[in-house]
UniProtKB/TrEMBL annotation, chain A:
Entry-linked InterPro entries: CPA3_antiporter_subunitC (IPR050601), NUOK/Mnh_C1-like (IPR039428)
Xref: Gene3D superfamilies: 1.10.287.3510
Family: Belongs to the CPA3 antiporters (TC 2.A.63) subunit C family.
Subcellular location: Cell membrane
Primary location recorded for the protein, binned into one broad class: membrane
Protein name: NADH-quinone oxidoreductase subunit K
UniProt keyword annotations, A-Z: Cell membrane, Membrane, Transmembrane, Transmembrane helix
Membrane topology: Multi-pass membrane protein
Source taxon at top rank: Bacteria
Ranges that cross the membrane: 6-25, 32-50, 62-82
Lineage: Bacteria, Pseudomonadati, Pseudomonadota, Gammaproteobacteria, Oceanospirillales
Length: 110, 232
């Protein structure tokens, strides 16, 4: 068991935590953070596994660098969309599929 | 609220998937790699025009990824800007006249710009490059915005649009030019490789900085100045 392999396995655990957050949490910002955690876990697995085999490997590193920049942009876009959603509906959670009784469905939706 | 049974079910599902992933990682780590990528890369590094392997992969050997990445960034920035309903992305309400802050910024902003330039240049032979430099530029812009320095170029006009697509446009142009000249898409001509990579990286830095900054600036929607839907 080498150190890079430990990183990869940690990545797997983080992925699980992120997945649980993504499906378990209701608040949209928390969901976005969970999605980010999943992304970071993927990067950790990619770099860790490749290092375990070959030593420092520039190819996955470049791939992960690309991925980081894309995930930053995606997160920023997500935040913008959440802001807009909140502004339009006044909610921070997605509508539940089963309409709950007595729920106030007002708010100026566009 | 969800029922406890559903919660436990989700927990179990997540645990099972995680265990599956962990097992796959473990099994993958047992396999012998089919090829020795780092050594291949070292052998070809001299042909790439830069000395740092990560930069060589990013901008030469797998420039396709980088091209698509900047395309994704441009799309995200366009979507972000179209969400912002203010006429100028610069918010006059955020302007402060704190003299201490201004004095600090007078030192910090040139230093950060210098650092961005250094990171860009260092990318050729050590860790650094367009993304780090672009992030630094964006951080400078965020700082300037938070302290209320005027950022006139962020008006969603022609200048902002050009800045956003500049890196992507040059990258695509270079790729297409080599394709039209009869070579493979994105194959740089051998004699200009260094200059091409440097100019692409410079424009990429500029574009990445502006894209990230535009996304940051587009996020706050001011409640007071928000027009109703359908109103222009």
């Amino acid at each position: 068991m080498s150190t890079p392999l430990l990183y990869a396995l940690t990545g797997a655990v983080l992925w699980g935590i992120g997945l649980m957050g993504l499906i378990g949490l209701r608040h949209l910002l928390r969901k976005l953070l969970a999605l980010n955690l999943i992304g970071s876990a993927t990067f950790l697995i990619l770099v860790g596994l490749a290092q375990h085999h070959n030593g420092p490997d520039p190819v996955p590193q470049a791939l992960v660098l690309t991925g980081i920049v894309v995930s930053i942009a995606a997160t920023a876009l997500g935040v913008v969309l959440i802001r807009r959603y909140f502004h339009l509906t006044g909610r921070t959670e997605l509508e539940s599929e089963v309409p709950e009784a007595g729920r106030d469905e007002e708010g100026h939706s566009g | 609220m969800r029922s406890p049974a559903a919660r436990i079910g989700m927990l179990l599902l997540a645990l099972m998937l995680t265990a599956l992933l962990g097992r796959s990682v473990w099994q993958l780590s047992m396999l012998e790699p089919a090829s020795d990528l780092p050594r291949q890369l070292q052998d070809k590094l001299a042909a790439s025009g830069v000395e740092h392997p990560v930069t060589a992969v990013l901008l030469n050997f797998r420039s396709y990824d980088t091209l698509l990445e900047i395309a994704v960034l441009v799309i995200a920035a366009m979507a972000g800007i179209s969400m912002a309903r203010t006429r100028s992305l610069e918010d006059p309400e955020l302007r402060t006249s704190d003299t201490l802050l201004r004095a600090l910024l007078r030192w910090l902003v040139p230093l950060m710009l210098l650092l961005a330039g250094y990171l860009l240049w260092a990318g050729a032979d050590r860790p650094g490059g367009a993304f780090q430099a672009g992030a630094m530029l964006a951080a400078t812009g965020v700082l300037m915005r938070l302290t209320g320095l005027p950022l006139d170029f962020l008006r969603p006009g022609i200048l902002l649009r050009i800045g956003l697509v500049l890196g992507f446009a040059l990258f695509l142009l270079v790729g297409l030019a080599s394709a039209i000249a009869g070579d493979v898409f994105l194959a740089y001509p051998r004699e200009f490789v260094k200059g091409l990579i440097l100019s692409i990286e410079t424009l990429l830095t500029l574009s990445i900085g502006m894209i990230l900054l535009a996304l940051f600036v587009a996020a706050p929607v001011n409640d007071a100045s928000e027009p109703e839907e359908g109103e222009k």
